[in-house]
TrEMBL record:
InterPro entries: Carbohydrate_sulfotransferase (IPR016469), Gal/GlcNAc/GalNAc_ST (IPR051135), P-loop_NTPase (IPR027417), Sulfotransferase_dom (IPR000863). It comes from Cyclopterus lumpus. This is Sulfotransferase. One of its GO terms (molecular function) is keratan sulfotransferase activity. The keyword Phosphoprotein does not apply. It is found in: Golgi apparatus membrane. Pfam families: Sulfotransfer_1. Residues 1-18 form the signal peptide. The keyword Flavoprotein does not apply. It catalyses: chondroitin beta-D-glucuronate + n 3'-phosphoadenylyl sulfate = chondroitin 6'-sulfate + n adenosine 3',5'-bisphosphate + n H(+); 3'-phosphoadenylyl sulfate + keratan = adenosine 3',5'-bisphosphate + keratan 6'-sulfate. Belongs to the sulfotransferase 1 family. Gal/GlcNAc/GalNAc subfamily. GO terms for biological process: carbohydrate metabolic process; N-acetylglucosamine metabolic process; sulfur compound metabolic process. Residues 90-408 form the Sulfotransferase domain.
Length: 435
């Protein structure tokens, strides 16, 4: 009796899953009016009728087996169908905060080759414009603008972004795109309009002499590429991007890059010295006013990062197979292994160009370079903060970012000696993704 009851529950659940799946498929196909291939039948097959006929009271195990086989095949059909919708095209969003090595990790995708359209921090313009207009106080407006711009850019549509570029582009031409040269896609031959001496006083690409960016050309080039990747340090909450994950035109893969908040603070105190002058003062005084706005901001940042990761790691249906968490420290120590994992997650081939770029850029380099440089001995960089951040400040970070440190596996230090003892690793081995 008990067994029969359990079996009927199992099949009821299975039926619900199949029905849901069919609904999703028909919704998707309604929107896109796809040509359906005959080998992937999208209408309910014989499965539901088996269930109904047997009224929840199965007697034969072979029937059970065949029902499961059918269910499995239909789930496979469903994932193949997803492929068909986006044509295998992947949309990678690298989410991070400043000083987490996101320029470096962004290069993993920028270097991929002719298949990839990569954009470096397009939301810079959006943040700048909104800060000018509203003092940056309208969080709702920012969330909406970031989401819309990202969604359009993944579809190679630059029009929303254009409206945020200052000065406003004329005839879709701009000389003001932030860090254009950081995107090799925007400096390719096909996106390189002639450089006219005297009209604009500087070149706009490192590798070749290009004039200002023609965004129509950029869009055309984007449409030719198989995959698209965007790096951004400006998205606060992963949940705000749910509509992108659910957009049937996109196959979005979110990669969240995190780093020990103590190291991030140490790095920001150097890179953004003026903005972090209070912290420098506190570091010298050895006293931190714990209720200061700056400390509250630090806590807010940590909480946002943690909450995004918690949602991602929980893998709700809208994020299934779409979220990967990566620690900067793991990338710095095992760049090739982590890059391989990231590429496996995205479903894009890991090209020899990327491999050789990583090899070249993770070994010691004698060249000294600016704060945004990606050319550093990355293993060495991981530990550097432990000798520059005063123990007092580390304690404050541990206090306000405690849950974040715990989630990502960063060990607390209990004394100055422990902080600066290199034989004690502060990074726990941790596996986050079950892909
Ligand atoms: C199926 O279930 C209905 C309602 O529970 C019952 O009336 C009917 O006799 C069942 N049929 C079979 C074939 O067991
Ligand atoms: C904030 O932005 C939203 C969405 O654009 C808008 O509806 C709202 O009026 C704005 N609020 C303020 C205070 O400007
Ligand atoms: C920008 O590129 C488009 C597409 O190639 C072209 O039609 C247009 O004339 C270009 N604009 C200018 C001002 O050169
Ligand atoms: C980079 O730094 C690490 C740690 O100090 C060291 O073990 C390694 O040999 C360095 N790599 C190179 C290529 O110098």
């Amino acid at each position: 009796m008990r067994i029969k009851y359990t079996i009927s529950i199992v099949f009821f659940v299975a039926l619900v899953i199949i029905e849901k799946e069919n609904n999703i498929i028909s919704r998707v196909s309604d929107k896109l009016t796809l040509k359906q291939t005959p080998q992937t039948p999208l209408q309910p097959s014989g499965f539901s009728h088996i269930l109904l006929k047997h009224n929840g009271s199965f007697t034969s195990h072979s029937k059970l087996d065949s029902a499961f086989t059918l269910m499995k095949r239909r789930l496979e059909d469903y994932s193949q169908h997803q492929e068909a919708v986006t044509g295998g095209r992947k949309h990678i969003l690298l989410l991070a905060t400043t000083r987490t090595g996101s320029s470096f990790v962004g290069e993993f995708f920028n270097q991929q080759g002719d298949n990839m359209f990569y954009l470096f921090e397009p939301l810079w313009h959006v943040e700048k414009m909104l800060t000018l207009e509203t003092g940056g106080t309208n969080a709702t407006a920012a969330v909406k603008a970031y989401r819309n711009v990202l969604q359009q850019l993944f579809l190679c549509d630059f029009s929303q972004l254009e409206s945020f570029i200052d000065p406003l582009p004329v005839d879709h031409i701009t000389a003001a795109l932030f860090r254009r040269e950081s995107s090799s896609s925007l400096c390719e031959e096909s996106v390189c309009s002639p450089f006219i001496r005297g009209v604009f006083e500087r070149y706009h690409c490192r590798t070749r002499r290009c004039g200002p960016l023609n965004l129509t050309m950029a869009s055309e080039s984007c449409l030719q590429k198989e995959h698209r990747a965007i790096k951004s340090v400006r998205v606060r909450q992963l949940e705000n991007l749910r509509p992108l994950a659910e957009d049937p035109r996109l196959d979005v893969k979110f990669i969240q890059l995190v780093r020990d908040p103590r190291a991030v603070l140490a790095s920001r105190m150097v890179a953004f010295a003026a903005k972090y002058k209070n912290w420098k003062q506190w570091a010298m005084d050895g006293e931190v006013p714990i209720d200061d706005d700056e400390v509250r901001k630090l806590k807010g940042n940590c909480d946002n990062i943690r909450m995004s990761a918690e949602i991602g790691l929980r893998q709700p249906p809208w994020l299934r197979r779409r979220y990967m968490l990566v620690r900067y420290e793991d990338i710095a120590r095992f760049p090739m292994r982590k890059a391989t994992e990231m590429y496996r997650f995205t479903g894009i081939p890991f090209t020899p160009q990327v491999k050789s770029w990583i090899l070249k850029n993770t070994q010691a380099s004698k060249e000294t370079s600016g704060v945004y440089s990606t050319q550093k001995n990355s293993s060495e960089q991981v530990e550097k903060w432990r000798f520059t951040l005063p123990f007092k400040i580390a304690q404050v970070v541990q206090k306000v970012c405690g849950p974040t440190l715990k989630l990502f596996g960063y060990k607390f230090v209990s004394s100055e000696e422990m902080l600066t003892d290199k034989s004690i690793s502060l990074i726990e081995d941790k596996v986050f993704n079950f892909l």
